[in-house]
Each structure stands twice: as C-alpha cells, then as structure tokens.
Design brief:
heterodimer; A: 148 residues; alpha+beta; OB fold (Dihydrolipoamide Acetyltransferase, E2P); 2 domains; 5-stranded mixed barrel; B: 153 residues; mainly alpha; 5 helices
C-alpha cells in the first residue's frame, strides 16, 4: 500500500474512533445531569476529570469542573481548596451531588509539571539524533546524512 | 497514568542495553505517546474531555504509533513500528496497575466499554518516587559513561 494511502487511512480510522468515543460513551457526566436534571435524578456518577475544590465546609464542599461549579453534600475529608479530587456521587435534581466516595489527588499538579521534563529531554535527544527531510516528509538519522 | 518520569524510567530500564541504541528514542516516544496525544488536550481544554475518551486506549495509541512511524525514513519505518508499539505496550502495562474511583481505562475500546485495573496505587502516588528514579537514572548513566571511557582508553 502506498505511504500516502496508509497515512490517510490511519488518520481516518483515528478520526472515526475519536467520534465514536465522543458519541457512544455510556458514562453519564455532570454536564449530562445538569442538562436533563429530571432524567438523571438519583444517577450515580463519577466526577474525576480536572475537578478542583473551590471551598470546603465540615459537611460539604464546592467543586469546579470544566466551567461548572457544584455543591457536594458529604464530608470533604482531607481535601482543601485548590486540591484536585475525584469523586463518586449521586445527582439530585435540586442541583446537588450526594457524596459516596472522594479521593483527593494531592500531587496531581506536581505530576503534570514533572511530566514535562521527560518530554523536553526526548525532544532534545530527538533533534540531536534525527533531522526532518522536508522533501521526503520524514525524520532520518543525522549520522546517516553525514556519511552519505 | 503515572507521571511521565516514572514511565520514562521504566522505559530506560528496559531499553538501556547498547544493542537497543538504534530504537531507543522511538521506544521512549511510544512510551510517552498515549499521554502526549490525550492529556494536554483535556488539561488545557477540560470541556473537550469527551473527545479524548478514545485517545488513551490501546487500539487508538497503537494506530497513532503506526501513523507516527510513517513519518520516519523508509529504512527506519519497520523498526519504528515495532519500537513505538513496544513502548505503548509498556505504557499501558504500568497504567493497568493503577487505581481510580469509578471506571478506569477502556482497554477494549471500541469493542467494549468494560474496564478493570489492578488497583496497586493512585495515579499521582508515583510522584513521591521521582527523586529516586532520577537518582538511579543519573547514577546509572554516569557509571555507564565512565565504563565506556575506560574501555576506550
């Protein structure tokens, strides 16, 4: 199979998978619940992606996720404002979540920052080992270029 | 996911022997690829999270690896496919050890939405080990460089 066809085919398959993942995911999100509160009353949901604590009280907490702010009934445990958390809760039409389980993801910020280091190192070593051939539109070994 | 230093350290342990030198960077690329294609998107744009569901799955990552290998020189392409795919397998081997609240990763996407994980540690727990990984990595590289210099002399 010619290379342009392979690239095109792979790109199309990847695009279809992204679309399928977006449209067929059975997981109910906080956004789904807020869009149709009556339908999802009592629904057990996991709120885990980029969720931060805005404020805590002894018996509840306020969380933020992707532009949404939500009150959660239940003890915040060791979670403090600014912390990343993941939680399992039941949605109520009153616009509240009833907490069932909470995990404060302390160290997530450090994890994101540390994760940049290996990528920078890879980029440096990559550029030292390979050069981009614009005509062929591919990366080739630098050593090979010096020999030939 | 564990942090990328932990992923990189695991890759370094496996790929450091000299005979793998030619494919080392490609293996590292494969090791980082599943997170590189998915995480920045939803960290920077959390509302796009639903569009990234497919991206951190084995099939999607392997196909992305094959696509990346197409951008290597023809004589490197076959090795690139193998090395990047092996790196991706290592990545998910570490990810399956984690614990999440609710559903974990969709290992069999798009054929099934079922998920499982070993639950040995939380995703951010590995951050505490980073200084140790970096110390072993740096020490190992210094010793290897010293041995190479001695062999040449």
């Amino acid at each position: 199979m010619p290379r342009p066809l392979r690239i095109g085919l792979l790109a199309i398959i990847l695009a279809v998978l992204i679309w399928y993942g977006h449209s067929a995911n059975p997981a109910v999100t906080l956004r789904d619940c807020l869009a149709e509160p009556a339908r999802f009353d009592g629904q057990r949901i996991t709120v885990a992606t980029e969720v931060t604590v805005v404020q805590t009280w002894p018996d509840s907490l306020l969380i933020h996720q992707a532009g949404l702010t939500m009150k959660v009934s239940g003890p915040p445990g060791k979670a403090r404002p600014g912390d990343y958390v993941s939680l399992v809760a039941r949605f109520r039409t009153s616009g509240r979540l009833e907490l069932e389980a909470l995990h404060p993801a302390r160290g997530r910020r450090a994890k994101i920052i540390w994760s940049i280091l290996p990528l920078l190192l890879l980029a440096v070593f990559w550029l030292a080992a390979y050069r981009f051939d614009v005509r062929g539109f591919y990366w080739e070994e630098r050593q090979r270029c010096r020999i030939s | 996911m564990p942090d990328l230093v932990t992923h990189g350290f695991a890759a370094w342990l496996l790929i450091r022997p000299q005979r793998w030198q030619k494919v080392r960077l490609l293996f590292f690329l494969g090791t980082f690829l599943p997170d590189v294609i998915s995480r920045p998107l939803y960290i920077l744009f959390p509302r796009w999270q639903s569009c990234t569901v497919a991206m951190h799955t084995p099939l999607f990552a392997l196909l992305s690896g094959l696509l990346a290998a197409e951008f290597m020189a023809p004589e490197l392409r076959r090795a690139a496919r193998a090395a990047i795919s092996a790196g991706i397998v290592l990545h998910f081997s570490l990810d399956v050890m984690q614990s999440h609240l609710g559903a974990g990763y969709y290992w069999f996407f798009p054929f099934s939405w079922r998920s499982f994980e070993l639950g040995w540690f939380w995703p951010e727990a590995t951050v505490a080990w980073i200084p140790l990984w970096l110390a072993i990595f740096t020490g190992g590289e210094v010793v290897l460089a010293w041995r190479r210099r001695r062999l040449r002399a």
